[in-house]
Amino acid sequence: MKLSETIRQNMIKNGKRFWAGDNVSEYVGNHIPDLIEEATVAFEGVLDALLIDRKNDPNSQGTARRLAKMYFYEIMAGRYSERPDATAFPNDSEDRYGGLLVVRSELKSMCSHHHQPVTGVAYIGIIPGQKVIGLSKYTRIAQWCARRGTLQEELCNDIAREISKATDSEDVAVYIQATHGCCENRGIGAHSSLTQTTVLKGQFNGADVKKEFFDNIALQQQFAPR
Ligand SMILES: [Zn+2]
What we know:
This protein is an alpha+beta fold. It contains nine helices and seven strands. It has helices at residues 3-13, 25-28, 32-49, 63-75, 77-80, 135-146, 152-167, 181-184, 207-223, and strands spanning 88-90, 101-111, 117-126, 131-133, 149-150, 172-180, 195-200.
């Protein structure tokens, strides 16, 4: 039996969901190179079915392997790798930070419907609880969630949930602005397909905190417009 088949059977047996946006790292372990071999053969079949001469066309030689590696190591890497390590630091002293933190994270993702690129930026808001994580970790976690096949609405939820887990804070907000290759390169062929999604948790549902969050985003956008 193929390795991918064995892993799939294993996940089905354990009731593990393995949708395009799900992380399957605990089932994949260190088998990525073997799975790349299997995916290479499968992509060769796709190229053949598309009637692309992958033997004589110099640009298509090796494309199947490039695609396989790109999926596992780049555009879907967040499915196969464990959550980035986010060491937490205590935020419980007298002069603890009690304000709002808003971190801007560049996002690269892919829609699970057409495997077209989704490019944008996430603004992650948090009111720290008893601990904080390094600023770069917010972006690492957001990227880890994004590097899968996603829907922007789900991605927004995924980032909020993972940031909440990593920081132990219930007060988290995520706002994403992104353009979608599946609107620009196909279908309606729109030149601009800016889509905005927002998830507000805990105190961010209060009018004042919500306003401060969006005011912060507006301020950030003055300096790094998108
Ligand atoms: Zn799509």
